[in-house]
Protein: Probable nicotinate-nucleotide adenylyltransferase
Amino acid sequence: MTKRIGLLGGTFNPIHNGHLQLANFVRQQLQLDVMQLLPNHLPPHKEQPLVTAKHRLAMTEAAVNDQPRLEVNAIELGRQQPSYSVDTLRQLRQQHPEDRLFFTMGMDSFVKLSSWYQWQDLLNYCHLVVCQRPGDQIPEQGPEALLWQQFGLSISELSNLPIAGHIVCLDNPLWPISSTEIRQQLLHGACASQLLPPTVAQYVADHQLYQQ
Ligand code: ATP
Structure:
C-alpha cells in the first residue's frame, strides 16, 4: 500500500503554533498518512541560528509529542554541509520509491524558490504544497510564476496524482506568527506563550533560550 507523506522543512528556531497549524492543515487537506517535520542543520538561506540544532530538534520533538500523525525526521541533522532540500528529497525518494511525497512551504519560501540550490530538480522528487502566509502572494512574473503556470494544480485535481511533479497552492487561513517575532519577544523579556506550544514554551524557559 503506497503512502502519502507530507514533509515540512524548517529552522524551527523556535517551532511555533503557526508551524503546527500549517502541518495539521496540510495533513487534513491532503489526507496524509503522516506529516514529517525536518529541522535543518545549517539553513542555506538564513543567518546561522544561535540556538543549537540539538535544542531546535528537542523543541520540535516536544511540539509534536501530542499531535497525531505528526513526526520529526532528523535526516538533515546527520549531514554537516548546508541542508539543501534537494539533497534531502533525493534521499527520501530513495527510501520511499513508490510513495507520494508532499514538500510543504509557506508562500514566503515559494516566492524565493529560484534562489534555492538545484531548485529545478525539486519536482523530480516530490510535489510542492504552498500555503498562504501574510505578506506574500503567488508571483505573477519570474521563474516561480512560470513554474506555477506549468505545474500548478487545484486541490480538486489531487485524487489521481503521480508520486511527484506538481504544485498545489492551498487556501488556508492566515497564521500571523513567525519565529523572528517570537525571538524578539523573548529577547525583550516576554514569554511568547500564546505563540508557542506549551511544551516548547516550557523548554525555552527551562533552558533560558533566546534571552540576552
Ligand atoms: P523566521 O521568522 O526565523 O524566518 P519562520 O517563522 O519563517 O522563521 P521557519 O522554520 O523558517 O519559520 O519555517 C519553516 C517553513 O514553515 C517555511 O516554509 C515557512 O514558510 C513556513 N511557515 C512558518 N510559519 C508560517 C506561518 N505562520 N504561516 C505559513 N507558513 C509558515
The helical segments are 17-29, 53-64, 85-95, 107-110, 122-125, 143-151, 179-187, 198-206. The chain has one domain: 4-177. The chain has a mean pLDDT of 95.
